[in-house]
């Protein structure tokens, strides 16, 4: 019952957070465009006045794509390399927004104010960035816990590829569960910091760890409920990509709009998840 | 449909029952080759020591007018005996102790019982190795005797020379130690793939055959990049091994004897094949099917059994296509082996009537690697098996030609844009794959393709032999037409099957067929084509440098002289435009090209250019402007290294840029949400 209540409250919070979601979406979009606009210019410059790039409009064409690689491969690879620092920047930005998000979902009434959102972001930035750092370490430990035994299991001689494949798949599934658990620990750590004002991050992580371990079945149940909508969205997007022929300016524009809507909805779902877990925590742990 | 039951063996049984006696039943009614060599081998596999102990009787008929005084054998397993072998010198990767292998002749006698072993002498026909002279000198410091040199070619002087046309017989005993699976031979645990395992006679080339100015043995050391060259032979092999092993081989099972001591002997016979390989494992699962007269057998490990149909379908496509476009497959059987993961070192190799494919558990249907390897290796039944070219000296003729046919079969069977990859967001045809692999290789003009296998520098053997050859053959097909290239290969098959053709034999047929079908449209002969793409490192790139369009003007200036001088203005000629299409040849290769010129009113003109000059302009003075132009509008010129510059439009579309930038943006946005798992 508590899970259902948290789930519905999470939805209500996220639907009431459209302005905040849009603010976050636009911030990320601006950063992403800083990479994409030069990419577009490079693409156009490599294409020049050739008709070959037209082959890439309606479908993927390996020959045309190969020519692009030959012509601009080194420069295109620069953009891919540039992604790593960019992703670190996104990680920091994502952490920065957490203070504002939690403050808002703790009390989502009234009109959303950008300035108070930013103030809350700033207020919790330091403990939350420490939380992110420790979460990173936890995730690395989870990774080691999964892949070290895996390498010992599959590194033996004369194994069949079916055994290796199945073992790797099981390991990846376990790692996925641990990844999700790690994000839950991080989420609850931030909630505790926000709710108690306790800035001793390691101690709070330990508290969040114990809480999430105690409630692990309920939490994963709630996660499963939450994941249904993103899955449906993903399948819908995949269906569109498979069945639409993107061969005109209008179709490219339509696809762009749908993709951006998808990204916006992902932010909404992330806020919803945070809302669900927040409600779950405050309705159980802190009530008593 | 796969048929696991052994019910479709009528043809084989017919062959078996029509045999001359119960021990040696012929497979083919009439010999397909001259069968200058006949091997009768009794061999026992020791699964513990990974050794083969064999007795061999070899009959050889001297095909020349020469008196031959020695026999030369390939001792391939000695390539992994020590680090001074030619093979390991070239690869610079010495194996571990358990990887070491060797083959040794313990005794050898001629038909009179004379012991020949005293004269055994290892020779190195390929020293010095040209482009690696400095690294592999003729004599390395510290080399004392033959035992420290390469031991992959053996010369055995005969006590009694073999006269022209005479048949000699030698009997020998040998031991082969198998390596941990390496270069498609050896063991992995209890899995065995046994190839190049016995002393194998080299090919004696009489004067006039291929490049031979005088008769002699054509033998080469086992090189890192090289394959093989052998006579079409008759093989009778009695193979003894533990009775729980399932065996696949290049022969037909004649008889099986179970000894009651945990071992069995299989009596196998193969006719007119150039090599005899076999494999044994306790875990093989067998599948059988039939295509016309050919019984198809597929052996694989249980975890790959669900992919058996993929392999068998690919074999059927290849059989059907090659039969129709080249010539019939003469043997009534073919066996395909799917090695297990631990034996993947045996993947992708051909032995005629037996070949290995390769797959990975869980590989999606849209990644057609298993089909590609199966089609390729089966294709070697023709290009190496039937047309037994010298793979040492002219590797383009087997790997290159065969890759061309692999491209055709794959595109025919699985679609020309999907035959290699057919995934939701990635598709690629096999012809495209070959072209891109060649052009994206580190240095596509590092060497020509007409050289011995071991002389390809810096890892260029693969792209220059397989993919470059396939690409220029694909281009040749598009230039002269598929019916003509089919006719070329049919004639090649008819004239040279079960013989040893050389490069010029193929070129002669191309010249003959092109002249017959196209007259002198492509010149006196097609030698120019082979000289550029096979025998040189030239590349090809034609480009449209730009198109310029301007309104035409009256030519102004001062006209007349003395008192009659008149100044005329350069006045615009309303409604008339001068369009200039500037063409350039950026690389060395010269090929006649077609250019499609498209005008704004929809009019199109096909122009022809001999492609010889470095620059060529097309100029039009017309009421309509040129909108775009395209070199090679039918995409025949696959060797063109840069297709981006083959076209030029006055109004470039930015849609593809918008589409891919949108994709890139979406990818970044999703990635940045993914990293939120860390906060």
Folded structure, characterized:
- The complex is a heterodimer of chains A (288) and B (679).
- Chain A contains 9 helices and no strands.
- Chain A is mainly α.
- Chain A has one domain.
- Chain A is globular and about 65 Å long.
- The two termini of chain A are 17 Å apart.
- With 679 residues, chain B is of the alpha+beta class.
- In chain B, a hairpin with a 2-residue loop joins strand 18 and strand 19.
- A 7-stranded mixed β-sheet of chain B has the order 4-7-2-1-13-16-15, with no helix packed on it. In chain B, strands 18-19-20-22-21 form a 5-stranded mixed β-sheet, covered by helices on one side.
- Among the domains of chain B are: 32-231, no CATH class; 401-533, Neutral Protease, domain 2, CATH 1.10.390; 542-557 and 569-652, Immunoglobulin-like, CATH 2.60.40.
- Classes of the chains: A mainly alpha (288), B alpha+beta (679).
- Chains A and B meet through helix 2, helix 4, helix 5, helix 6 and helix 8 of A and strand 24, helix 6, strand 33 and helix 11 of B.
Task: Give me some keywords for this one.
heterodimer; A: 288 residues; mainly alpha; 9 helices; 86% helix; B: 679 residues; alpha+beta; Neutral Protease, domain 2; Immunoglobulin-like; five-stranded mixed β-sheet; 11 helices
Shape of chain A: globular
> What Rg of chain B is obtained from the alpha carbons, in whole angstroms?
30 Å
> So how many helices of chain A?
9
Shape of chain B: elongated
How many individual β-strands of chain A? 0
Total strand count of chain B, please? 33
Structural class of chain B: alpha+beta
| Coarse structural class of chain A | mainly alpha
Query: Mean of residue pLDDT of chain A?
Result: 90
- Within the largest sheet of chain B, what's the order of strands? 4-7-2-1-13-16-15
Helicity of chain A, as a percent range: over 70%
Largest β sheet strand count, sense and barrel closure of chain A:
none
Q: If you average the pLDDT of chain B, what whole number results?
A: 91
- The quaternary organization reads as heterodimer
> What is the strand content of chain A?
under 5%
Uncertain regions spanning at least 5 consecutive residues of chain A: none
Any idea what the radius of gyration of chain A is?
22 Å
């Amino acid at each position: 019952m508590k899970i259902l209540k948290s789930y519905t409250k999470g939805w209500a919070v996220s639907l009431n957070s459209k302005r905040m979601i849009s603010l976050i979406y636009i911030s990320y979009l601006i950063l992403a465009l800083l990479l994409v606009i030069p990419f577009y210019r490079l693409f156009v410059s490599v294409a020049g006045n050739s008709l070959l790039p037209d082959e890439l409009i309606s479908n993927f064409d390996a020959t045309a794509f190969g020519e692009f690689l030959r012509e601009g491969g080194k420069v295109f690879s620069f953009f891919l390399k540039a992604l790593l620092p960019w992703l670190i920047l996104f990680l920091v930005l994502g952490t920065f927004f957490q203070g504002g998000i939690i403050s808002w979902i703790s009390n989502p009434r009234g009109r959303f104010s950008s300035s108070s959102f930013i103030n809350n972001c700033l207020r919790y930035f330091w403990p939350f960035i420490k939380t992110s750092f420790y979460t990173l370490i936890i995730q690395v430990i989870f990774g080691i816990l999964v892949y070290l035994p895996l390498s010992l299991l599959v590194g033996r001689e004369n194994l069949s590829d079916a055994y290796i494949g199945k073992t790797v798949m099981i390991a990846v599934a376990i790692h996925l569960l641990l990844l999700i658990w790690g994000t839950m620990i991080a989420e609850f750590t931030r909630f505790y910091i926000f709710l108690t004002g306790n800035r001793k991050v390691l101690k709070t992580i330990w508290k969040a760890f114990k809480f999430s371990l105690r409630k692990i079945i309920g939490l994963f149940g709630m996660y499963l409920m939450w994941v249904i909508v993103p899955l449906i969205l993903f399948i819908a997007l995949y269906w569109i990509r498979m069945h639409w022929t993107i061969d005109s300016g209008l179709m490219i524009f339509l696809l762009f709009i749908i993709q951006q809507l998808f990204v916006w909805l992902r932010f909404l779902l992330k806020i919803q998840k945070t809302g669900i877990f927040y409600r779950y925590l405050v309705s159980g742990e802190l009530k008593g | 449909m796969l048929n696991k039951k052994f019910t479709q063996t009528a043809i084989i049984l017919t062959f078996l029952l029509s045999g001359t006696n119960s021990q040696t039943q012929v497979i083919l009614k009439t010999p397909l080759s001259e069968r200058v060599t006949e091997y009768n081998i009794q061999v026992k596999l020791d699964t513990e020591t990974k050794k083969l102990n064999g007795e061999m009787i070899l009959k050889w008929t001297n095909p020349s007018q020469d008196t031959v005084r020695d026999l030369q054998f390939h001792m391939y397993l000695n390539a992994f005996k020590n680090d001074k072998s030619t093979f390991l010198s070239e690869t610079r990767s010495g194996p571990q102790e358990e990887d070491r292998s060797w083959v040794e002749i313990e005794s050898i006698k001629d038909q009179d019982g004379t012991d020949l072993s005293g004269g055994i002498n290892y020779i190195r026909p390929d020293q010095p190795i040209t482009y690696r002279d400095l690294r592999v000198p003729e004599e390395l410091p510290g080399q004392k005797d033959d035992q420290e040199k390469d031991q992959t070619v053996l010369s055995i002087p005969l006590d009694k020379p073999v006269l022209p046309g005479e048949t000699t017989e030698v009997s020998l005993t040998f031991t082969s130690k198998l390596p941990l699976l390496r270069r498609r031979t050896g063991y992995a645990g209890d899995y065995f793939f046994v190839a190049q395992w016995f002393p194998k006679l080299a090919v004696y080339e009489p004067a006039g055959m291929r490049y031979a100015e005088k008769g002699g043995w054509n033998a080469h050391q086992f090189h890192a990049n090289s394959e093989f060259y052998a006579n079409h032979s008759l093989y009778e092999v009695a193979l003894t091994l533990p009775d729980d092993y399932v065996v696949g081989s290049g022969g037909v099972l004649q008889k099986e004897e179970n000894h009651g001591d945990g071992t069995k002997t299989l009596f196998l016979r193969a006719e007119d094949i150039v090599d005899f390989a076999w494999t044994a494992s306790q875990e093989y699962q067998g599948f059988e099917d039939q295509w016309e007269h050919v019984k198809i057998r597929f052996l694989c490990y249980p975890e790959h059994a669900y992919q058996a149909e993929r392999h068998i379908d690919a074999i059927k496509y290849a059989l059907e296509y090659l039969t129709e476009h080249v010539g019939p497959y003469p043997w009534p059987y073919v066996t395909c082996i799917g090695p297990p993961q631990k034996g993947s070192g045996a993947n992708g190799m051909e032995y005629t009537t037996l070949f290995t494919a390769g797959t990975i558990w869980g590989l999606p249907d849209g990644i057609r690697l298993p089909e590609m390897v199966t089609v390729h290796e089966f294709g070697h039944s023709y290009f190496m098996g039937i047309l037994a070219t010298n793979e040492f000296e002219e590797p383009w003729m087997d790997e290159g030609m065969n890759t061309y046919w692999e491209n055709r079969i794959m595109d025919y069977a699985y679609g020309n844009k999907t035959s290699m990859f057919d995934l939701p967001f990635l598709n690629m045809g096999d012809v495209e794959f070959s072209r891109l692999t060649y052009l994206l290789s580190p240095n596509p003009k590092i060497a020509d393709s007409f050289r011995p296998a071991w002389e390809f520098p810096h890892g260029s053997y693969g792209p220059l032999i397989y993919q470059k050859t396939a690409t220029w053959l694909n281009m040749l097909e598009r230039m002269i037409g598929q019916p003509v290239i089919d006719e070329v290969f049919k004639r090649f098959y008819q004239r040279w099957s079960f013989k040893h053709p050389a490069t010029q034999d193929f070129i002669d047929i191309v010249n003959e067929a092109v002249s017959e079908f196209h007259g002198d449209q492509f010149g006196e002969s097609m030698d120019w084509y082979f000289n550029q793409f096979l025998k040189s490192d030239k590349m090809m790139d034609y480009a449209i440098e730009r198109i310029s369009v301007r309104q035409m003007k009256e030519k102004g200036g001062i006209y007349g002289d003395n008192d009659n001088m008149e100044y005329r203005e350069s006045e615009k000629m309303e409604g008339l435009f001068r369009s200039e299409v500037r063409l350039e040849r950026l690389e060395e290769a010269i090929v006649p090209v077609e250019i499609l010129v498209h005008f704004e009113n929809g009019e199109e003109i096909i122009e022809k250019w001999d492609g010889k000059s470095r620059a060529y302009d097309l100029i039009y003075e017309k009421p309509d402007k040129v909108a775009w132009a395209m070199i090679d509008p039918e995409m025949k010129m696959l060797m063109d290294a840069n297709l981006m510059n083959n076209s030029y439009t006055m109004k470039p579309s930015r849609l593809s840029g918008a589409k891919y930038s949108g994709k890139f943006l979406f990818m970044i946005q999703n990635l940045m949400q993914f990293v939120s798992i860390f906060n």
